[in-house]
Every structure is written in structure tokens, then in C-alpha cells.
Amino acid sequence: MTEGFTAVDLTCSTPPKTASNGRGMDFEQPIFSVLTGGLRAQQAGGTTAVTVGTTSDTESGIFSAESELCVEHDSELDWFCGTDQKPVCSECASSGACRGHAVTPLATRVTAVRNQLVDVCEKMQLQAKRIESFIEQTLSTKEQKLQSAASRAREQVLAQISAVREALEEEEQRLLEEVQREEERVEQCLLTQRAHWNHALTSLTQTRSHLVHTLTHTPDAQLATSLQEIAERVEKAEGVGEPRDTEQLSLNSACSDSKLLRGLWATALLLGPKAYRSPHLKFDERTVSPLLSLSEDFCTLTFLHKKSRQPLPYDPARFDCWPNALGSMSLSSGTHTWVVDVGQSGAFKVGVCYASLERKGSGNEARLGHNGQSWVLSHYDGDYSYCHAGKKVPLQVVKRPQKIGLLLDWPSQTLLFYEPDSNAVLYSVTQQFNAPLLLACAVTDDSITILHGAGREEMSNVR
Question: Which stretches make up the B30.2/SPRY domain (predicted)?
Fold first, then answer.
């Protein structure tokens, strides 16, 4: 070695690994980082790493790709400067531009690069084999499993749809037959009533005609002695009675009631492709009782204890005695649903009412569920019930729901209460609503929150 400079080994810190010598390789290391990252890591220990590439003569002014001699010293380029990443001659290394730099014999450098390239090529070959194996084995197996899984899924769908279709067809047949029987029963009642009252009308008409004739054509002396006959005819006429409409003359709506059909119908509305998700429904702050507080987003009602209550300005729309509040949207068409989070509240009511519901006083006229203008699901002291017009229907709830859902289908005049997590129907009622409906809620323990509301058709503000 030429005096005045020190040779430094630029080979990788890890000896090259080849398949021919039987040593393993680090297959987790990225392929193209081997040349750059592996050698560069040695700089901290006094050895300079290199990258594959060629420094052009325009960058260095010393090395020319067309010559293996140093342009400055006309000497062989038999050393490699790790600092400048270029081949140099011994003169450059000892006393020239690369003096004091980390250098190594060019042959050593080339050997290290070749060994690295061998490793890279071997890793590429092994990676190619892994890819081929993945394509031929894994993907092929996955494709077969996919076909089997898809086939099973199709069979399951068809089987479930077939079961639902079969049940619906049987239920359809049963309900149509029930409606037909009820229709025939009412028709028979109507025929019977028609025949009875036609006969009564004829008898009454004849009796009246006879009495009118007696009144107008009978001599006074004879009329005075006809009281017994007249009394008998009057008694007969009075026996006809007054006609009255009865429930027997109307179709019983229960003939078309079906838990199966109602459940499937509700599920289709709640989970079908046109489920409702528009969060528009909120509480109208004008209606909120002074016993409650309303959150800033107008969605949460909280029961206030006596010390927390503050007087509110008079408003004809505000409930003054009962802890009630109404929704801000009136519902008079389409299909709508909303969910109220009742949390751990031990006393609440959730339902609908007419806008004409009384707001003042402590009477039943303003008490939800105790008048003919409100329909609510009530929870108090662990018991659940449906309340309307002062009548309660106890509900069997297997698990205490954290949320109560309401579904109002205006075309069918159906109000349905359900449990959103399972979509289980808690209670449903079909009634002829004769005015727009508002969400109606009450709470006397903790708080309740409207989570969302929606509708397929217009929901207009009642204010």
C-alpha cells in the first residue's frame, strides 16, 4: 500500500450469504435495500458504505467512463473512496483530493458488490417461487373455497326466502279466508237487519195509516169506544223499537291482524333498502314543562328536582303541570320512524298526540295516555304498558330496553312501538287518526334523548 494513507475495509458487516455455501439469508429484509442500507450502516464504525452506481466524469472531473486511469495522475484506478463514492488512484488517496478519506482496494469493493448482487438475485428467485406457490396453491384453494362458500350462501338465502315465502303464502291464505268469513258474517247480519227493519217499517207504516184513517174517518161516538183497539195498535207500533248501529254490522279489523305479517312488515320498513335515517325530529322548546330542562340541541329532556327548577315565561303551548314535551314536527302523511334513548330512566312515556292536546292544568286532559288524544308507551316502577284514553295494556318485556322506537305509517293508520336493537315489536295499534300527530314524551326520572327521526314523505313544521 502506498505510504501516507490507510486502507479501510468497505465490505458489509455481515459476510455475503449464498446458496452455494449453504448459509441462510434474511428474507425479511427488502431486496433493494441490501445494497444501500446494508453497507451504509457501517459508516458509524469508520467504514463508509456505497451505493451501486457510477459517478460521471462531469461530477468528479477525475474518472472517465472511457478510461481506467486517473485523469489527474494518469494512474490506475485501483482504490475506491467510500467518502466520495468513486474509484480513485493511489495518488489521490494518499496526497490528492481523497486524502484522509475512507478508502478500500477496488477489488475488495467489487467483490462485496458482486456478493450482494448474488444475494439479491437469490432472494428474487426465492420470492418468485413464493409468488408462484401463492398463485398456484393459496389463490387456487381460495377460489375453490370461494365457490363453495358462495354456493352455500346462495342455498341459505334461497332456503330462508323459501321459508319466509311459504309462511307468508300460508298466512296470506289464512288471513284472506278470515276476511272472507268476516265479510260474509257482516253481510248476513246486514241482510237480516235489512229484512227485519223493512218488515218493521211496513208494519209501522200500516199501523200509522190505519190510525190516521181511524182519526179522520171514524165518527166521534165510535171513536170514543175504540180506545182499546187504538191502544193495541199503538202498543204494537211501539214494539218495533228504535234502530241502532252495532259493532256486529261492521267488519272486525282483528280479522286481518297477524303478528307474523306485522313483524315482517315492520322489519321491512326498518331494515329494508329504504330505511329511514334523516335526523330532523327534535323537541319544541315552547312546549317543554318547567319540570324539565331541554338540551342545547333540543334532543334531550332531563327531569329537574325542585331546587333546580326556574320559572319560565308563560306560553300557551307549554305544559304547566305535567312533565311533558312535544316534538317540533307534525306528521300527517307517509311513513316515519324515530328512536328515543331512555337509558336508565325509571319513569317515562314515549308516543304521539294531537296538537290540540290540552297543555294547562293537572287534569287527565293534559296527561299523556289518559285521554283520547294521546297514545304512549309508559314505563313506571319496572312495568311497561300501552296507554290510551285512560286504559292500560300491560306489556311483557323480556329485557329492559335502552331505546324505544316508534314507527308511524300514516297510509295504514298504524302506530308501532318496537325495540331498536332487536327490532322486536312491543305493541302496535291501528286507529283512524283524524289530525296530524306530534311526538309526545314525558319523564320523571333521569333523562331521555331523541336519537334520530325520519320520514319518507313531507314532515312540515307545525309552528
Answer: 260-459
